[in-house]
Amino acid sequence: MLRSLMHYFERRLHARDDGARVSHPFEWGLEFLDAGPDLSDLPDLPDLPDLMDLARDSHSARQFIKQFNEKTLEASDGFYTPPPGRRSDFESSASESDWRRLKFPSAVITPYEKNNLVYAKFFPADRGDSAVIVSPQWNAKEDSHVALCRGLNRFGVSALRLSLPYHDQRTLDGFTRADFLVSANIGRTIQSIRQAVLDVRRAADWLFFQGYKRVGVIGTSIGSCVSWLAFIHDERLEAGVFNMVSSWFGDVVWRALTTTHIKRSLETELTAEEVREVWKTISPSAHAGRLARERRPVLFISAKYDLSFLPDLAQIFFDDCDRHNAPARKVFLPCGHYTIGQTPFKYIDAFHIINFFRRLWR
């Protein structure tokens, strides 16, 4: 009965934004995968004009995406590592409240100038040398997770709340939602997730420049995927909370209630299996081999009645962790993807997150 009730509320909350969701046409988007200077360790990838030609032929585009995923998985350290940060890259200023504004150039340059500058809100604690980088969910409002940041402050943990690509001040003119973060454009979606990962790692640079000794991450929904990819590629990050987790990026988009409008475009060209393959490099489970040496403290939070990050997809990721004996705490909340943001679940969720860091860094 609880499952049916939660699924009812999930669909009802999802329906609130039906009119705002836009189903963009399918595109290979190979031009977004052009290997720039920071991808020099990914050999034999065609130049941009050749990519445009490839995209006109479906078979060739499929082969290129397959090759691209193979090479980026083999060289994922290079793919997910930004150039060394410099103090001069970052600009911070006081706000009218008790937080500071931070902005810095993204390590990934997209065709959309407005998206190439990263914004964040920094909530410093009165004491302590610990800080976390908070990555919100897709289409989060600008004030989302602020209460969580202030809650962390009470226990001596500073918090840097990042804006994801195409969100907040990075929202493109004429758009009301961050459609380009996840869409039926294969290459642009890969670029967007990679950009978000590098933004997290650049934000960590700034926190270390500020003198913080212990830095962790918190990610929710797609922010969880982004934070996990940053976490497993950056050993400086000491701990992480991954709030709603999944295994295969393509499976989530294909099956999630949240992305039914994207699936309609994807299925004009791809099968479910192909969608998993084309987005393999941005999938947590594709990097499961790294779990064999992973011993940093982490907390995974999953919603039992989630219609977006479905429980069976989350279980694949948990099985990855168990297979490699990766130490992790797991919490299962009796709610769904949307209802986790509703009373009382949002308070229970926040309690687990704050308590994890309170006990770890007390």
What's the arrangement of secondary structure elements?
Layout (H helix, E strand, L loop, with lengths): L1 H14 L32 H7 L3 H17 L1 H4 L11 E4 L5 E6 L11 E7 L6 E6 L10 H8 L3 E6 L23 H24 L4 E7 L1 H12 L3 E7 L5 H7 L4 H7 L5 H7 L19 E6 L7 H13 L5 E5 L11 H16 L2
Parallel strand pairs: 4-5, 4-6, 6-7, 7-8, 8-9
Antiparallel strand pairs: 1-2, 2-3, 3-5
Helix pairs in contact: 6-7, 8-10
Task: Report on this structure.
- The chain is built from 12 helices and 9 strands.
- It has helices at residues 2-15, 48-54, 58-74, 76-79, 146-153, 186-209, 222-233, 249-255, 260-266, 272-278, 311-323, 345-360; strands at residues 91-94, 100-105, 117-123, 130-135, 157-162, 214-220, 237-243, 298-303, 329-333.
- α6 (186-209) crosses α7 (222-233) and α8 (249-255) runs antiparallel to α10.
- The N and C termini lie far apart (40 Å).
- 47% of the residues are buried.
The main sheet comes to: 9 strands, mixed
Strand segment count: 9
Alpha-carbon Rg, integer:
19 Å
Alpha plus pi helix count: 12
What is the rounded distance between the termini? 40 Å
Task: Provide a quick synopsis of the model.
The chain is of the alpha/beta class and 362 residues long.
Question: Keywords for this structure?
Answer:
15% strand; 362 residues; 12 helices; 9-stranded mixed beta sheet
